[in-house]
């Protein structure tokens, strides 16, 4: 039992194992009640029991397949009417390293529904209430493949680029409404993710694989510091700042009434 102040309810998707289970642990210790979402009810129940015993927080389990339309809508409906929610951690996700030619399109379809549609719909379900209450935060687990899609499967990279772009846009739209959004871009992290994607983590050079606990602790330290995009492995943060500066420098030049002269197109000017 801890004496931490009550911080409201945090929803953590993909909480049954890996990165999500660590988020659940850390957030309960910080003072959040929890709603834990994933398919594996037994693992969620065991985690909920442990965390409520150790922290005294209320921990609810919502067993759901977030790639399934009916399950996703059931979770949305429950979360939409829960005014205690102050934090949404969109973390559930699957990925793989396989190329288009070696990938099953049905698995890609499921990946897009889980990695893209589920965080989108859960955000739409929860944000209006947060805005009405004038406070709230969202943590979206993206990946370094959001900016380096050549590293793994292209649909996975595209799904995480969506998460990064969506987070960037949400920050732009919601910052003045009291809502904070953080996109976390982990590099290789030691979880079941790799085995489930067909490449056990032991196949990666150990010097690029971070323990999930260190990854989450770094991401939460960055969240506390108000970072909007966090790359836990990145030592030289000026590299990210230069990337963002280059992106921002492009913005005034991206739309024009005529194509650029280098294309040689005869214009109507
Ligand atoms: N591990 C890495 O190297 C790495 C790097 C960058 C980003 N990420 C991202 O980090 C997030 C967490 O991954 P992880 O590494 O912790 O992997 P993990 O250990 O495999 O955990 C994935 C979590 O998502 C849940 N999940 C999977 N399919 C689901 C579904 N259809 N409906 C609901 N929940 C589902 C799993 O629970 P159930 O199986 O019980 O449903 C589990 O709790 C993912 O978004 C992943 O893309 C991971």
UniProtKB/TrEMBL annotation:
InterPro entries: NAD(P)-bd_dom_sf, SDR_fam, VLCFA-Steroid_DH. It comes from the Bacteria. Coiled coil: none annotated. GO terms for molecular function: oxidoreductase activity. It holds the Pfam family adh_short. The keyword Oxidoreductase applies. Keywords: Oxidoreductase. PANTHER family: RH59310P. Belongs to the short-chain dehydrogenases/reductases (SDR) family. This is SDR family oxidoreductase.
């Amino acid at each position: 039992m801890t004496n931490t102040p009550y911080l409201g309810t945090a929803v953590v998707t993909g909480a049954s194992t890996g990165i999500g289970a660590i988020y659940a642990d850390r957030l309960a210790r910080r003072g959040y009640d929890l709603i834990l979402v994933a398919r594996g009810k037994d693992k969620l129940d065991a985690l909920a029991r442990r965390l409520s015993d150790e922290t005294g927080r209320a921990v609810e389990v919502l067993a759901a397949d977030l790639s399934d339309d009916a399950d996703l809508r059931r979770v949305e409906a429950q979360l939409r009417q829960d005014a205690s929610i102050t934090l949404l951690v969109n973390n559930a996700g699957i990925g793989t390293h396989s190329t288009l030619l070696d990938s099953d399109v049905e698995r890609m379809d499921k990946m897009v529904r889980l990695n893209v549609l589920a965080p989108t719909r859960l955000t739409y379900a929860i944000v209006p209430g947060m805005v009405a209450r004038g406070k709230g935060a969202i943590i979206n687990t993206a990946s370094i493949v959001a900016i380096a899609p050549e590293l793994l499967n292209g649909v996975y990279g595209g799904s995480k680029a969506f998460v990064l772009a969506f987070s960037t846009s949400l920050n732009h739209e919601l910052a003045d409404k009291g809502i904070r959004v953080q996109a976390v871009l982990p590099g290789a992290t030691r979880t079941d993710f790799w085995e489930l994607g067909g490449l056990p983590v032991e196949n990666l050079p150990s010097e690029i694989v971070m323990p999930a606990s260190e990854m989450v602790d770094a991401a939460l330290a960055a969240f506390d510091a108000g970072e909007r995009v966090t790359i836990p492995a990145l030592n030289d943060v000026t590299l990210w700042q230069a990337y963002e500066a280059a992106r921002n420098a492009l913005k005034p030049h991206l739309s024009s009434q005529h194509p650029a002269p280098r294309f040689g197109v005869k214009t109507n000017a």
